[in-house]
Amino acid sequence: MSPERKSFRRIGPDQRREAMIDAMLAIIAEDGIAAATTRAVAARAGVTPGLIRHYFESKDALLSAAYERHMDDLTRATCDAGQGGSAAARLAAFIEAGLCAPVVSAEAVSLWAGFLTHVQRSAEMHGVHARTYAAFRDHLQGLVAEALAEAGRPAPAPVLRRHAIACNAVIDGLWLEGGMLPGAFASNELASIGLETIAAMLDLPLKEAAQTIMTEEVTS
Q1: Using CA atoms, how far apart are residues 107 and 30, in angstroms rounded to an integer?
Q2: Where are the alpha helices (DSSP H) in the chain?
Q3: Is the C-alpha dihedral spanning 192, 196, 198, 202 positive or negative?
Q4: How much is the average pLDDT of 97-115?
Q5: What is the pTM of this model?
Q6: Between residues 217 and 39, the one the model is more confident about
Q7: DSSP code for 33
Q8: Tens of pLDDT, residues 29-55
Q9: What is residue 1's DSSP assignment?
Q10: What is the rounded distance in angstroms from the CA atom of residue 101 to the CA atom of residue 169?
Q11: DSSP assignment of 81-133, as one string?
Protein backbone atom coordinates (compact mmCIF):
# COMPACT_ATOMS: atom_id res chain seq x y z
CA MET A 1 0.00 0.00 0.00
CA SER A 2 1.49 3.34 -1.00
CA PRO A 3 1.30 6.22 1.48
CA GLU A 4 -1.52 8.68 1.06
CA ARG A 5 -0.12 11.87 -0.47
CA LYS A 6 -1.22 15.13 1.10
CA SER A 7 -0.76 18.59 -0.34
CA PHE A 8 1.85 20.71 1.42
CA ARG A 9 0.29 23.17 3.87
CA ARG A 10 1.29 25.83 6.36
CA ILE A 11 0.96 24.80 10.00
CA GLY A 12 2.79 25.65 13.21
CA PRO A 13 6.13 24.02 14.12
CA ASP A 14 4.70 21.85 16.89
CA GLN A 15 1.81 20.70 14.72
CA ARG A 16 4.20 19.95 11.86
CA ARG A 17 6.41 17.82 14.10
CA GLU A 18 3.38 15.94 15.42
CA ALA A 19 2.12 15.42 11.85
CA MET A 20 5.41 13.73 10.97
CA ILE A 21 5.13 11.43 13.98
CA ASP A 22 1.49 10.69 13.10
CA ALA A 23 2.54 9.80 9.57
CA MET A 24 5.32 7.53 10.76
CA LEU A 25 2.95 5.64 13.09
CA ALA A 26 0.24 5.34 10.42
CA ILE A 27 2.62 3.90 7.83
CA ILE A 28 4.14 1.41 10.28
CA ALA A 29 0.66 0.28 11.36
CA GLU A 30 -0.49 -0.19 7.76
CA ASP A 31 2.58 -1.51 5.95
CA GLY A 32 5.33 -2.22 8.48
CA ILE A 33 8.43 -0.37 9.54
CA ALA A 34 10.31 -1.06 6.28
CA ALA A 35 7.74 1.03 4.41
CA ALA A 36 8.25 4.05 6.69
CA THR A 37 10.91 5.75 4.59
CA THR A 38 11.63 9.44 4.97
CA ARG A 39 10.03 10.10 1.58
CA ALA A 40 6.90 8.12 2.48
CA VAL A 41 6.56 9.90 5.82
CA ALA A 42 6.99 13.28 4.14
CA ALA A 43 4.30 12.51 1.58
CA ARG A 44 1.92 11.28 4.26
CA ALA A 45 2.53 14.29 6.49
CA GLY A 46 2.28 16.80 3.66
CA VAL A 47 5.82 18.15 4.09
CA THR A 48 9.06 17.97 2.14
CA PRO A 49 11.72 15.36 2.98
CA GLY A 50 14.10 18.21 3.74
CA LEU A 51 11.74 19.56 6.37
CA ILE A 52 11.81 16.23 8.18
CA ARG A 53 15.59 16.53 8.42
CA HIS A 54 15.09 20.01 9.87
CA TYR A 55 13.05 18.59 12.79
CA PHE A 56 14.80 15.23 13.21
CA GLU A 57 18.53 14.75 12.78
CA SER A 58 18.02 11.24 11.42
CA LYS A 59 15.35 8.69 10.58
CA ASP A 60 16.23 6.90 13.83
CA ALA A 61 15.44 10.09 15.74
CA LEU A 62 12.00 10.20 14.12
CA LEU A 63 11.51 6.50 14.88
CA SER A 64 12.41 7.14 18.52
CA ALA A 65 9.93 10.01 18.74
CA ALA A 66 7.21 7.85 17.20
CA TYR A 67 7.95 4.97 19.58
CA GLU A 68 7.90 7.33 22.55
CA ARG A 69 4.54 8.74 21.46
CA HIS A 70 3.08 5.25 21.04
CA MET A 71 4.23 4.04 24.44
CA ASP A 72 3.25 7.28 26.18
CA ASP A 73 -0.24 7.09 24.68
CA LEU A 74 -0.70 3.52 25.94
CA THR A 75 0.59 4.45 29.39
CA ARG A 76 -1.63 7.54 29.58
CA ALA A 77 -4.74 5.61 28.54
CA THR A 78 -4.07 3.08 31.31
CA CYS A 79 -3.03 5.49 34.05
CA ASP A 80 -5.93 7.88 33.48
CA ALA A 81 -8.44 5.21 34.50
CA GLY A 82 -9.89 5.08 37.98
CA GLN A 83 -9.03 8.43 39.53
CA GLY A 84 -11.54 8.09 42.37
CA GLY A 85 -12.76 5.52 44.85
CA SER A 86 -10.78 3.29 47.17
CA ALA A 87 -7.16 2.38 46.59
CA ALA A 88 -8.21 -1.15 45.63
CA ALA A 89 -10.73 0.26 43.17
CA ARG A 90 -8.07 2.50 41.58
CA LEU A 91 -5.73 -0.46 41.17
CA ALA A 92 -8.54 -2.58 39.71
CA ALA A 93 -9.43 0.20 37.24
CA PHE A 94 -5.79 0.44 36.15
CA ILE A 95 -5.61 -3.29 35.47
CA GLU A 96 -8.88 -3.30 33.57
CA ALA A 97 -7.91 -0.29 31.45
CA GLY A 98 -4.64 -1.99 30.50
CA LEU A 99 -6.48 -5.11 29.35
CA CYS A 100 -9.37 -3.61 27.40
CA ALA A 101 -9.75 -1.57 24.22
CA PRO A 102 -8.36 0.83 23.16
CA VAL A 103 -5.15 -0.18 24.96
CA VAL A 104 -5.55 -3.78 23.83
CA SER A 105 -5.76 -3.78 20.04
CA ALA A 106 -4.15 -5.49 17.08
CA GLU A 107 -2.79 -2.14 15.88
CA ALA A 108 -1.18 -1.30 19.24
CA VAL A 109 0.61 -4.65 19.41
CA SER A 110 1.59 -4.49 15.73
CA LEU A 111 3.19 -1.09 16.23
CA TRP A 112 5.03 -2.25 19.34
CA ALA A 113 6.32 -5.35 17.52
CA GLY A 114 7.43 -3.26 14.55
CA PHE A 115 9.62 -1.14 16.80
CA LEU A 116 11.07 -4.04 18.78
CA THR A 117 14.15 -4.87 16.69
CA HIS A 118 15.09 -1.18 16.56
CA VAL A 119 14.82 -0.93 20.35
CA GLN A 120 17.52 -3.60 20.60
CA ARG A 121 19.97 -1.89 18.24
CA SER A 122 19.37 1.82 18.91
CA ALA A 123 20.65 3.34 22.13
CA GLU A 124 18.17 6.20 21.78
CA MET A 125 15.18 3.89 21.37
CA HIS A 126 16.44 1.65 24.16
CA GLY A 127 16.45 4.73 26.39
CA VAL A 128 12.88 5.54 25.38
CA HIS A 129 11.85 1.98 26.19
CA ALA A 130 13.52 2.11 29.60
CA ARG A 131 11.86 5.42 30.44
CA THR A 132 8.35 4.44 29.36
CA TYR A 133 8.59 1.05 31.08
CA ALA A 134 9.73 2.71 34.31
CA ALA A 135 6.92 5.29 34.14
CA PHE A 136 4.28 2.58 33.77
CA ARG A 137 5.77 0.32 36.42
CA ASP A 138 6.31 3.15 38.91
CA HIS A 139 2.68 4.24 38.59
CA LEU A 140 1.60 0.63 39.11
CA GLN A 141 3.89 0.35 42.14
CA GLY A 142 2.26 3.40 43.68
CA LEU A 143 -1.20 1.92 43.22
CA VAL A 144 -0.10 -1.39 44.75
CA ALA A 145 1.46 0.45 47.71
CA GLU A 146 -1.77 2.37 48.36
CA ALA A 147 -3.95 -0.74 48.07
CA LEU A 148 -1.79 -2.78 50.45
CA ALA A 149 -1.65 0.09 52.95
CA GLU A 150 -5.42 0.42 52.75
CA ALA A 151 -5.70 -3.29 53.57
CA GLY A 152 -3.51 -2.80 56.65
CA ARG A 153 -0.47 -4.47 55.07
CA PRO A 154 2.00 -1.72 54.11
CA ALA A 155 5.10 -3.08 52.39
CA PRO A 156 8.68 -1.78 52.08
CA ALA A 157 9.93 -0.40 48.77
CA PRO A 158 11.89 -3.52 47.67
CA VAL A 159 8.78 -5.69 48.14
CA LEU A 160 6.61 -3.18 46.30
CA ARG A 161 9.08 -3.11 43.42
CA ARG A 162 8.89 -6.91 43.07
CA HIS A 163 5.10 -6.79 43.21
CA ALA A 164 5.02 -4.12 40.50
CA ILE A 165 7.37 -6.07 38.22
CA ALA A 166 5.29 -9.23 38.61
CA CYS A 167 1.95 -7.46 38.12
CA ASN A 168 3.31 -5.63 35.09
CA ALA A 169 4.40 -8.95 33.60
CA VAL A 170 0.85 -10.31 33.95
CA ILE A 171 -0.63 -7.23 32.27
CA ASP A 172 1.98 -7.25 29.49
CA GLY A 173 1.49 -10.94 28.73
CA LEU A 174 -2.29 -10.71 28.50
CA TRP A 175 -2.03 -7.46 26.49
CA LEU A 176 0.21 -9.20 23.97
CA GLU A 177 -2.12 -12.19 23.64
CA GLY A 178 -5.16 -9.95 23.24
CA GLY A 179 -3.53 -7.90 20.50
CA MET A 180 -2.17 -10.91 18.62
CA LEU A 181 -5.40 -12.93 18.80
CA PRO A 182 -8.22 -10.37 19.18
CA GLY A 183 -10.94 -12.87 18.26
CA ALA A 184 -9.80 -15.55 20.69
CA PHE A 185 -11.17 -13.99 23.87
CA ALA A 186 -14.63 -13.09 25.11
CA SER A 187 -15.49 -9.52 26.03
CA ASN A 188 -13.63 -8.49 29.21
CA GLU A 189 -12.12 -11.98 29.54
CA LEU A 190 -8.54 -10.73 29.66
CA ALA A 191 -9.41 -8.02 32.18
CA SER A 192 -11.15 -10.60 34.37
CA ILE A 193 -8.15 -12.95 34.22
CA GLY A 194 -5.79 -10.08 35.00
CA LEU A 195 -7.83 -9.01 38.01
CA GLU A 196 -8.10 -12.56 39.36
CA THR A 197 -4.39 -13.26 38.90
CA ILE A 198 -3.12 -10.03 40.43
CA ALA A 199 -5.69 -10.24 43.24
CA ALA A 200 -4.32 -13.69 44.12
CA MET A 201 -0.72 -12.47 43.92
CA LEU A 202 -1.39 -9.54 46.25
CA ASP A 203 -4.16 -11.15 48.33
CA LEU A 204 -6.46 -8.21 47.65
CA PRO A 205 -10.22 -8.18 46.78
CA LEU A 206 -9.75 -6.53 43.39
CA LYS A 207 -12.70 -8.15 41.63
CA GLU A 208 -15.00 -6.95 44.38
CA ALA A 209 -13.50 -3.48 44.09
CA ALA A 210 -14.06 -3.51 40.34
CA GLN A 211 -17.66 -4.60 40.85
CA THR A 212 -18.15 -1.69 43.25
CA ILE A 213 -16.96 0.70 40.54
CA MET A 214 -19.44 -0.76 38.05
CA THR A 215 -22.30 -0.52 40.54
CA GLU A 216 -21.49 3.11 41.31
CA GLU A 217 -21.34 3.96 37.59
CA VAL A 218 -24.73 2.36 36.96
CA THR A 219 -26.42 4.14 39.88
CA SER A 220 -24.80 7.55 39.35
Answers
A1: 9
A2: 13-31, 38-45, 49-55, 59-79, 87-98, 106-121, 123-150, 157-180, 189-202, 206-219
A3: positive
A4: 94
A5: 0.87
A6: 39
A7: G
A8: 999 999 999 999 999 999 999 999 999
A9: -
A10: 19
A11: S--SS-HHHHHHHHHHHHTSTTTS-HHHHHHHHHHHHHHHH-HHHHHHHHHHH
